[in-house]
Structure formats: C-alpha cells, structure tokens
Amino acid sequence: MTSTHDPLIRAAGCVLWRPSRLDPGLEVCLVHRPKYDDWSHPKGKLKQGEDALAGALREVEEETGYTARPGTELTAVHYTVAGRPKEVRYWVAEAVSGRFIPNDEVDRLLWLAPPAAIARLTQPRDRDLIAALPLN
Question: Which one of 3, 26, 31, 79 is CB 3.0 to 4.6 Å from 106, fit for a cystine?
C-alpha cells in the first residue's frame, strides 16, 4: 500500500511555441503569475493519478487558452518548495489553436523570440529549458 502523503510535489508543463509572425524562427510563450509576480512557462500541479503529459497539456490550456501538440519531453526540473521536493516534467509543445484570456492565475502572456524569453524568465532553471529546445 502506498502512502497517501507523498512528500514529492508533482507538476508538469510545456515550453509552448509557435512559428514567429515576424521572421522564419519561432516564438516561446511565457505567462505572468500575479501571485508570484514572475514570468514562467505554463505549468502546474498534477491531479492525483493524472498522467504527467495529460496534466501538462491541461495546465497549458488552463493558463494560456491554447491547445497544444506535444513533442519531445525535456529534462525534468527539481527544486524545493516550502521544504518539500518538487519535480516538474516539461515537454516541448506547439500551440495549435486558442487565445489568451487573463484570469486570476495568469494575468499576462507574451510570445517572445527565444533570446528575449530567456532574458524575461524569472528563474534560471526555466531559462535552461529554452536552451534545450530541439527546434532552434
């Protein structure tokens, strides 16, 4: 029997991208979370028993309004939150359709070229994910 109190916080998200509207490259989606006043990739905690990829796509849609086509899984990110270990699994995902509507969790969204996205991200651990994009 497994413990009902797993100390590991499980989360998932995507490095969401779309073809650039200005040049032949791509744009990366970043979200601003007013609760933390930070810029990050769309991500969130998994529901109990939820598959990580399904959770990543759900979080992308909830936070950005976009449906996404998943691609390669990236290296998981590990850090500590309030003394508990957290693991966030990320996938590269192409924005397929949708539009952003500000909400309580995410009040702003930006589409930026990879170098600008790297500069805007609050956490260095999030910057490394863009550098790992196989699309560059």
Answer: 31
Neighbours of 128 (CB within 10 A): 14
In order of 3, 20, 37, 49, 106, the CA distances from 43 in angstroms are 25, 22, 15, 17, 11
The stretch 106-110 carries a mean pLDDT of 98
Q: Which of 115, 126, 129 is nearest to 75 (CA)?
A: 129
**CA 28 to each of CA 16, 75, 83: distance values in angstroms, whole numbers, following the listed order:** 6, 17, 31
Note the pLDDT tens digit of each residue in 15-31.
999 999 888 889 999 99
d(CA 93, CA 18): 9
CATH of 9-131, one of 1.20.20.10, 3.90.79.10, 3.30.1540.10, 3.30.190.20: 3.90.79.10
The CA distance from 127 to 114, in Å, is 9
How confident is residue 131, by pLDDT bands cut at 50, 70 and 90?
confident
